[in-house]
Amino acid sequence: MLEIKDLVTEYGSVKALNGISLVAHEGKITTVIGANGAGKSTLLRTISALEHPRSGSITWKNKSIVGLSPEKIVRLGIAHVPEGHAVISQLSVEENIEMGALFRMRSNKTDVLLAIQEIYQLFPRLEERKKQLAGSLSGGERQMLAISRALVSRPSLLLLDEPSLGLAPLVVEQIIQTVNDLCRNTGLTVLLVEQNANTALGVADHGILLSLGTVAADLPAAQMKADVALRAAYLGY
Asked: What is the domain range of residue 137?
């Protein structure tokens, strides 16, 4: 279980996260939604140690992870897929995927090779293009590659930031469904940040609504999706 209590992260004098608390249960999809500037991406960056909180606690499986390096966070089984389909354009698809398992390659090369084959089964298009430079891929393929690079590390917690950004609806549906299948079939825990609230709440077990760095609502996803007043007040629809 991922548990966050009274978390504060600041950019200068601005509190991007202003004392938020939440729980993401193992083997479930918890989605964090909210308008631009709500603090969604900052939350994921703080969990993965790309930002340092001013105060508060973050525990994963009853172990505090505040103050650890990003590398140690990854070694604990937490993988972060940032927004923007982030891949290394000058490397091939195959090389990008292997980058996600560098820390495991020496100790468990056999399992890394197995994990890569499993990824190609999840995303057959990546296997077809494995020798191509990542920069030549479409936006949807780059997003698949970014997720694959995270999955090859065999994470138990996946932090997924805006996977639908700039993608066609059919591609978004495929990616979200793949993540959902992974969660249901393997017990992967997912913390999904998404601006498309309908998409996110349609697949998630639980919803966290952020507004200006605070938690405005913390509800089962179906209940949040059905709350017309809540959507109108915070999401504009």
From this structure: 2-234
d(CA 97, CA 64): 29
Q: pLDDT-derived band of residue 106, with 50, 70 and 90 as boundaries?
A: low
Q: CA 27: distance to chain centroid?
A: 14
CA 231 vs. chain centroid, Å, equals 23
3-state secondary structure of 235: coil
Looking at residue 18, which CATH number applies to its domain?
3.40.50.300
- For residue 235, name the pLDDT band (cuts at 50, 70, 90): confident
Cross-strand pairs, 20: 7
Which residues does residue 3 pair with via DSSP β-bridges, in sequence order? 23, 59
**pTM beyond 0.85:** yes
SS3 labels along 95-151 = HHHHHCCHHHHCCCHHHHHHHHHHHHHHCHHHHHCCCCEHHHCCHHHHHHHHHHHHH
Total domains, the chain: 1
Q: Under a CB-based contact definition with an 8 Å cutoff, are residues 5 and 57 in contact?
A: yes
